[in-house]
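protien #1 (seq + structre)
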Amino acid sequence: MNDRTDDELDRLLAALPLEEPPAELRASILAATVRRVPAEPIDPWEAGAWGLLLAFAAWVIPHLSDLNGIIGTIDRVAFTLAQPTTLIWLTVGSVAAFAASAIPDFSPRIHLARKGR
């Protein structure tokens, strides 16, 4: 049988020559697990495309009561999109949306609700 006590085993374990862990081991483990930013459920461009499609559908559906309404709606949309000011505002809005999406997310630095506090 083994006649060693727990104290003697602890002393022997503490005397083992162990190699030091890498300096950034803890940080890399935390970065890979706890601090990992979850993936987006859908891509931002896909969400934008669905938003535009739904907005267009919500605007067009009330005008689709008859054939003359459809033709009139297509005519008004084509005329509106052909205006230079509309094209400029669409360009400015698209650039602003892409610029806002390019801004880095600062939420990991904000800890409003942390467990254990």
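ok now protien #2
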Amino acid sequence: MIIQILLPFWLYLDTIFKDIEIYNSLTYIPFEDLILKEEMLKINKNLEIKNTIADLTLSFFMNQTLPKQESLLLLSEEESARSFLLYFLAIQEIRKENFIKARSLLEESLKLNSDFDYAWNLLGYLQSNSNNFKEAEISFKKAVTLYPNHPIYRFNLSKTYFNLGKIQDALKEIDVSIRLKENYPEAYFLKGMILEEINKEEALKNYQIALEMGLDKDSFLIQFLNLAFQLNSTTLISQIIEKLQNKKKDIEILLLLLKIHLNYGEYNKAYQIFEEILLLPSGIYELNKEEIENQYEQLKILNCKQGMKLQNFFLKNQNRLEKYKMDFVKKILNFNCKIHINVKDPIVSPGR
């Protein structure tokens, strides 16, 4: 029994002793003599270049910080880093809105390194930005093939499919993107836009997830509010309007809010929005004049509900605002309000 226990241990010790003998018999050569100084410098240079590429890439994607000139100079010194150099130079040109130059740099980068997924993705972005969605599809597909588990590449390919009208392909890709990155509000926004074509209720649910994740871009809130209004979801309408309270409202938001407030009988709020629209710079108003004045049938109720305020506005601004604006206000004020018998709230005014 003792032998069975100790034998493995003795064998182990014997192995160690033999290793010690071999170790003691070796002749050691200093490390610096094993490798030429030129080779060591080359290794250090390659490591420095790789670290620079990693730092630049991380810095740009985390903070959108442009590469410094000294970093680009370092990359220019090494032929193997040229494709990366061209990629970062393309980013600089994009910031200057030199999209043609940026595209040429990316195409040159990809000639040097056809497996450069970042460059394929950025090229797809430029192609998509100029509405060349067929070209963008090829570039994003290439990026996805090279890096299948990148949620942004999947997102970009999905958006391109959506722009090409390939709804099922777009839905498939955005589902993969969400599986790869569950906390991706923009992906839920895009999925909602895709689903609006086939299932508005499901689209609304995806918009709600994006909102809960903190997405508050104007384009998203407008899309979400429009759909919530179409489906008469007052709970969501209320939530989105609350999100818009502290945001600077452009004409698209103002027109949508005007429509909603009029529809739900919030005439004081509707009047305030209408006044904001009338006071917009003439250029912005003129671009949207037809859409604004097409709402006359809904706006004429303001003469009945907010007539005094509207008359005061007309008198105060008739010499200050453009004639076509004041003519439109005058048209609303000339609407003849009919007398309506208001219904009674049985709780506020209980019957006997």
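The longest helix spans residues 37-63.
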